[in-house]
Each structure stands twice: as C-alpha cells, then as structure tokens.
Write a structure and sequence with these properties.
The protein is of the alpha+beta class. It has helices at 5-13, 30-40, 46-58, 74-79, 110-116, 134-145, 165-181, 215-221, and strands spanning 17-24, 86-91, 96-101, 121-127, 150-156, 187-191, 235-236, 239-241, 253-257, 262-264, 268-272, 276-285, 288-290, 292-294, 298-303, 314-317, 325-334, 340-341, 345-350, 353-367, 372-375, 379-380, 385-396, 409-413, 420-426. Strands 7, 8, 9, 11, 12, 13, 15 and 16 form an 8-stranded antiparallel β-sheet that branches. The chain has a 6-stranded mixed β-sheet with strand order 2-3-1-4-5-6, sandwiched between helices. Strand 5 (150-156), helix 7 (165-181) and strand 6 form a beta-alpha-beta unit.
C-alpha cells in the first residue's frame, strides 16, 4: 500500500479540529461564556460586534452583552435563554473549533443530544452560587451516555462568591464524584467568570490559588484521538451508481460516507445483512482512484462480484463484521412531547437504513439523583433516559455504541408524521453501570 495505517493515524492525529458542546442550566452564563470565548480569542467580526453593541444599548445595557453573539433567535434574545442548538466555527493559531451551544432549559435538554452526539468534548457550566443541580446531573448523564471522551466543568460566576477556592473545590468534588460513577473517562474543572473574563482566554488575577489551564488553553491542547487501528471499519451504502453509458457500460459503484475505520483495495469484505462476501477492487474519491480511504471521507467503492446491494446495506471487513439481528437493546434519550410506550410501532433509522419496529419492552428508567434504575416504568416521557428493547422487521447490523458512536446509534421515529421520538445508543448504558432490574416479558405485537 502507498500509505500505511501508521501514517494515516499520524495524519489524522495531527488534525487540529475539535468539536465541542456547551451545556448548563438557565442563567448559568453559558452564552456569555461562549461570547467571551469568541470575543477574547478575536473570533468576532467587526460588524457582528457592532450589532451586539447596538442590541445591548437598545436594551439599556452600557457594556456589550456577549451572550447575544450566540443567542441568534429573536425568542432567545427576548427571553434571555438559549432554545436552539447554535453552531459556531472559530479558530486560533493552534486549532480549529466547531462549537455546539446547546440549550440549558430543562424542556430543551433533548437538544443537547444533537449537539453532543458528535462532540469530542463537553463543556458543562455550573453557577458557583447554586452548585450542582438536577440539570447539571442530566447534562453529565447525557455526556456519559453519548460517550463524550472529555468533560470540562466550568464553575462560573466566581466573582459573585468572592473567588473563594473552597466554593470551587466543593462543587468540583461533587461533580467529579457523580460523573465518575457514570464512567466519564476524563473530567477537568476550571473556575471562571465569563462576565469578567477570568480564566476564559486569559488567566485570572483574582484566583492565584488556581494553577490549571484557562478554558481556551485546555480546548487548544486536549488530545483528539483518531487511532485507525482500534476502529471497526464500517461503510453504510447510501446510493448505488450505475451510469450505463457508452463510456461506463459496466460501472457499478456503491457511494456513501465511511462511518468509521479505513477500507483498502484488495480487502475482503462482508455485505450485511445478507452476509455475502466479496473483495474491494477499486475506491473512487473526488474523481480519482485511491488505494485506501478512511472516515469520514465520502467515496465510491467497487466490488469484484455482482451482489444484490442497495441503500441501507453495510460493508465491513470480513474479519471484523458485526452480527445482524432483529433484536436491539439500548439506552434512549426520549426527545418527543408524546410518550414512548411498550407495544408502540415505530420506525428505526440506523445509518442509511430505516425499518419498521416495535417497542417490546421498557425495562427501566434512569433516576438522575442517585443513578438508580426505576424498573418497568411502562413509558418514557420527554427528556427521560431509559432502557428499551426493540424488535425490527428486518435484521440490522448494529454495533455497540461504546465501540462505534456512528454505527451504534439510531433514531426511533413516529411512522405517522415522521417525528423523532428518541435517540438510541445500543449496548450498555454507561462505561460503569449499576444493576438494572430487567423485565423479560415478551407480550405484545411481534413480527
């Protein structure tokens, strides 16, 4: 091969892009922190800053309200809360960033699932005056469920508690203990004042007892791992290309985006759910043939044999192919206003495949206060986190979410109107879990 796995791993490890999501309760100062981060890192255009200054003056504020840099919806500006997930792109000399500013209000917790699903880091804000509250625990649980590898606890409004080290230490210890029980692998606590700019971009002159990094410094230096040798290679087929022209009479290619890992010409692969095997003869990327391609590249793969392959099928190395099954057990975050109940008919969307399914059982619902499991709740309502067992009409090749965030995740959809009901993570709930009182009943409609 022209490029080895080791070289590709080094190339991807050197990528300076970090995806991170922010979360916090209402009035914790999350939008102000994001605005301060953008402003002090010189990532705000002059006309944007001028618009914020004008909007602030019209509201009777002398200083610019930096929260307006992210609260883009008119309803958010009027209410002073963040409703939608606001994506921001900025860069420093050391790294590029994609920031997902997620809502803090409890009724919009479901939006955090969207923002954190692809994040390498979750930045959770806590008001130093209030400490860890239920919404903080909910955000920590969502970050743990989504297997976000790095979590930063930003204890904000330290200026309102006289920059006391004891206040910060108490909050940091409580949060770290809780998040560690959820299995969060890395937790970094930073005391800040977003309004005054303490420890956001520049070190604080008021907290000489703190010797750690600022928020921006940590974001610039936190490791982002792209180890191809540990990834399960997966390629969901999105489109079958058959031009049947005079120039390409026999061309048959399978187009899509590589979900994880790398694929090579000459590699033996298995097509799921059929289980048929064949060999990769060519990989086309950006109009050129390549010997190897890796996630998240969009490519067209050509195979040695004419196999019945269509949208929704999955290509995987024959020595590392997942098992196709009609039974999926997972943890879900319920995001719809209407409840999810046992026996409900749904659609399950996994990568590029959508199949009919039924909710066979809801064994438990997570209680965030003490991480206990409430057995057999019968239903899940908006913002609930619980375990479900789903039976699908057709086999699916679903990985454990712990192994692959792309091919271990799915959506449950209302077949009547297309509403997203729940976001699911297959396999175990957390890296460290407590015992769940499971119910093995098999009543209800079956396929």
């Amino acid at each position: 091969m022209s490029t080895s796995t080791e070289q590709l791993s080094e190339q991807l490890a050197a990528t300076t892009l970090l995806r991170f999501a922010t979360a916090g309760s209402v009035d914790d100062g999350k939008s102000t922190l994001v605005g301060r981060l953008l402003h002090d890192s010189k990532s705000v255009l002059a006309d944007q800053l001028e618009a914020v200054e004008h909007a602030s003056r019209s509201r009777g504020q002398e200083a610019p309200d930096l929260a307006l840099l992210t609260d883009g919806l008119r309803a958010e500006r009027e209410q002073g809360i963040t409703i939608d997930v606001a994506y921001r792109y900025f860069a420093t000399t050391r790294r590029r960033f994609i920031l997902a500013d997620t809502p803090g209000h409890v009724q919009y917790t479901r939006n955090m699932v969207t923002g954190a699903s692809t994040a390498d880091l979750a930045l959770v804000l806590v008001d130093a005056r209030n400490g860890v509250v239920e919404q903080t625990r909910r955000h920590a649980a969502v970050a743990a469920l989504l297997r976000v590898p790095h979590v930063v606890l930003a204890v904000n409004k330290m200026d309102l508690v006289d920059y006391q080290e004891s206040v910060f230490a108490s909050i940091a210890e409580e949060f770290t203990t809780y998040a560690s029980e959820l299995g969060v692998p890395e937790i970094t606590a930073i005391p800040i004042s977003a309004l005054a700019g303490d420890n956001v971009v520049e070190p604080s002159a008021h907290m000489d007892w703190y010797g750690g990094p600022t928020v921006l410094e940590h974001l610039e230096t936190v490791p982002v791992s792209h180890d191809l040798t540990t990834c399960h290679a997966r390629f969901p087929v999105q489109y079958v290309i058959r031009p049947q022209t005079a120039e390409h009479p026999d061309y048959r290619g399978y187009a899509g985006q590589i979900a994880a890992g790398a694929f090579r010409v000459g590699e033996r692969i298995t097509v799921l759910p059929s289980g048929r095997t064949t060999t990769i003869t060519a990989i086309d990327a950006l109009g050129e043939s390549v010997d190897i391609a890796w996630a998240p590249q969009s490519v067209t793969i050509r195979l040695a044999d004419d196999i019945d392959i269509s949208r929704g099928d999955l290509l995987a190395p024959s020595g590392d192919a997942p098992t196709a099954s009609q039974d999926v057990e997972a943890t879900v975050c319920h995001v719809a206003d209407q409840p999810l109940v046992v026996g409900q008919r749904v659609l399950l969307k996994h990568t590029t495949r959508t199949v009919k399914a039924i909710v066979k059982d809801i064994p438990s619902r997570l209680t965030l206060d003490d991480l206990s499991q409430h057995p057999s709740p019968g239903q899940l309502v908006a913002n609930d986190i619980g375990r479900v067992r789903v039976r699908t009409a057709e086999p699916l090749a679903v990985d454990a979410y712990a192994d692959s965030r792309r091919t271990g995740s799915f959506l449950l959809i209302d077949p009547a109107d297309g509403t997203t009901l729940a976001a699911g993570m297959a396999g175990e709930s957390f890296a460290t879990t407590k015992a769940v009182a499971a119910v093995d009943g098999e009543e209800g409609w079956d396929f």
